[in-house]
Design a protein that fits this description.
Layout (H helix, E strand, L loop, with lengths): L4 E3 L5 E5 L3 E6 L6 H6 L2 E2 L4 E4 H9 L8 H22 L4 E4 L5 H13 L3 E8 L2 H11 L5 H19 L9 E6 L7 E5 L1
Parallel strand pairs: 2-9, 3-6, 3-7, 4-9, 5-6, 7-8
Antiparallel strand pairs: 1-2
Helix pairs in contact: 2-3, 3-4
């Protein structure tokens, strides 16, 4: 497996990307996936496909009395469709942000990568559970306790697999990254 992330002397994380990369940024809800990518220095002109964009758009058209948990499944479906669409249409690197703790979700992403003839790379954000929960509270969108516990249990299994040196099938590279501290910026560079 090739390393996807390197540390630049400027205290930044540097990702070197090819035009046909599909990079899935994964980790439990609240791990900092959106923050990491939205604060990134995107020199590679990568497109970022984030479910928060879908959730924000839908929140403007659904009745106010309808809480997010009621339209969350629609957000998930639309988000996955947008990942497929961008992977097929966009000529540069594509970043897909989602937990991907579920094996079927990772399989779907592998299939999307294969259909779009993109190199599949997984960037797993590892974070302390309490910090992730606190981040959910801060953003005002908290996963239900059972759902969050499922994400945590699956994430631990994935991290154990990767720690043991095993590979995740279908991925060209997998990189585990501890949640970067504030101020450490991600640089997306064209390769």
């Amino acid at each position: 497996m090739t390393a996807l992330v390197s540390y630049a002397p400027s205290n930044a994380l540097r990702l070197v990307l090819a035009a046909n990369d599909l990079v899935v940024v994964a980790g439990i809800p609240g791990a900092g996936k959106s923050t990491l990518l939205h604060e990134a220095d995107n020199r590679a002109h990568a497109v970022v496909v984030d479910s928060e964009h879908v959730a924000c758009r839908l929140s403007t058209v659904v009745p106010e009395r309808l809480s997010y948990r009621w339209y969350r499944p629609l957000v998930h479906v639309v988000h996955r469709y947008r990942i497929l669409r961008m992977a097929l249409r966009y000529s540069g690197p594509v970043f897909a942000l989602l937990p991907a703790t579920c094996a079927s979700t990772r399989l779907l992403l592998v299939v999307i990568g294969m259909l779009s003839r993109r190199t599949r790379r997984l960037l797993w954000i590892s974070v302390d559970v309490d910090a992730a929960y606190g981040a959910q509270v801060a953003r005002g969108r908290v996963n239900p306790p059972r759902s969050f516990a499922r994400h945590v249990r699956r994430a631990r299994a994935i991290e154990d697999t990767l720690r043991d040196g095993s590979r995740l099938r279908g991925w060209r590279s997998v990189k585990v990254l501890r949640r970067p501290p504030r101020g450490r910026r991600l640089v997306l560079a064209a390769g």
